[in-house]
Amino acid sequence: MIDLHYWPTPNAHKVTLFLEETGAPYTLHPVNIGAGEQFRPEFLAIAPNNRMPAIVDHAPADGGAPISVFESGAILLYLAEKTGRFLPADLRGRTATLEWLFWQMAGLGPMTGQYGHFHVYAPETIPYAQERYAREAQRLLGVLDRRLEGRTFLAGDGYTIADMACYPWISPYVKAPLDLEPHANVRRWREAIAARPATARAYAVAKDPRFARPAELSDEQKRILFGITPKA
User: Fold this and answer.
1) Domain 91-195 CATH assignment equals 1.20.1050.10
2) How far apart are CA 65 and CA 60, in angstroms?
3) Cβ atoms of 119 and 20 closer than 8 Å
4) Which of 25, 104, 154, 160 could share a disulfide with 100, CB 3.0–4.6 Å?
C-alpha cells in the first residue's frame, strides 16, 4: 500500500497518473498547501522540501521498514522500478526516458511554473518577467515538439514516466493559457494522453471535495505559498 500525500498540483498529478495506470492501491492524504499544512513536522519528516507530492511505501521491495520518497521525479522513478512498469528495460529506452524525465524536472516544470507565477499570481505586473518566462515556456514547448516528431511518446512507441512527468505541465494555467498552436506534435501527444482512461481517473481525484480551492487566493494563502506580503 502506498500513502500519497497530495494536493492537486501539476507535480502531484504525475503520481496519480502512474498509480492509476498500474492500478496500485494507494491512500490519499490531503495536504492543504494554502493552509500551510506542508510545513507541519509530520509532513516535513517525509518531504523536507515542503512541496507536493510525497509517498510512503509500506511494502518496499527490500521487505524492510516503510520508505518515504519526496520529489515527483524521484517518486516516478521509484514506482517504475518497484513495479517494472513504464520504464524501458533496454539501455537506450531507459536512457531516453530518464533524459526527458530530468529535462522536465529541471526545465519544463520550473520555467512553466515561473510563467504561471508572473502571469497569474504575482501582486504586480512585471512585463520583463512575463515576457522572459513566456519566451522560455515557448522555447521548451518547441524542444518537446521536435522530440515528438515521428514518435508516439517521448521515448518512442511506449508510454513512460517521462510522458507522465511532462503532461501535467503543458499549459496548466487556465487564466494564462500557453499558445500550443505552433506545436502540432505536442498537441497530438497531449490529446493521446488525455484520452487514456487512467488519465481521466487521475484527474478525477482532484475533484474530491477535500481538495476544493477558492477561485482566488486570499492574501494569507499568497503569503503562505509565495511569501508575498500585501503592500500597505
Assistant:
1) yes
2) 7
3) no
4) 154
| Whether 180 contacts 186, CB under 8 Å | yes
Over range 196-221, report the average pLDDT: 89
3-state secondary structure 156-207: ECCCCHHHHHHHHHCCCCCCCCCCCCCCHHHHHHHHHHHCCHHHHHHHHHCC
* CB-CB contact of 72 with 165 (8 Å): yes
Domain positions in the chain: 2-85+201-226, 91-195
Q: Which residue has the cell 503569503?
A: 223
Q: Residue type for 231, please?
A: K
- Amino acid (one-letter) located at 45: A
**Stretch 145-169: mean pLDDT:** 98
Chain Cα centroid distance, residue 39: 20
2-85+201-226: CATH homologous superfamily? Glutaredoxin (3.40.30.10)
Kindly state the DSSP code that residue 118 receives in the 8-state scheme.
I
**What CA–CA distance (Å, rounded) separates 93 from 122?**
40
Q: Tens digit of pLDDT for each residue in 117-150?
A: 999 999 999 999 999 999 999 999 999 999 999 9
Helical pair 109-116 and 10-22, crossing angle rounded to 10 deg: 130
The pLDDT confidence band at residue 230, using thresholds 50, 70 and 90, is low
* pLDDT single digits (tens) 69-88: 999 999 999 999 999 999 99
Cβ–Cβ < 8 Å for 4, 15: yes
Specify the pLDDT at position 227.
Answer: 82
